[in-house]
Design brief:
It is found in: Cell membrane. This protein has 61 residues and is an all-alpha fold. The chain has one domain. The protein contains two helices and no strands. The relative contact order is 0.06.
Length: 61
């Protein structure tokens, strides 16, 4: 994407949402990304098998 396209895109976003709402939108997107990363991390941790625990019932000889 050329720099001119990026500038045009930013101008359109400012016109559509208004300059006052941009910080709120950015904050909301950041919070959503944080929640998404947290959930993805929890899902990958859930997929890992837990090592077998060595209970005292196994070693009672």
């Amino acid at each position: 994407m050329k720099p001119a396209h990026i500038i045009i895109l930013l101008v359109v976003i400012i016109v559509v949402f208004g300059a006052a709402k941009l910080p709120d939108i950015a904050r909301s997107i950041g919070q959503s990304a944080k929640i998404l990363k947290k959930e993805m991390k929890e899902l990958t941790e859930d997929d890992k098998p837990n090592p077998p625990s060595q209970n005292s019932t196994e070693n009672n000889n």
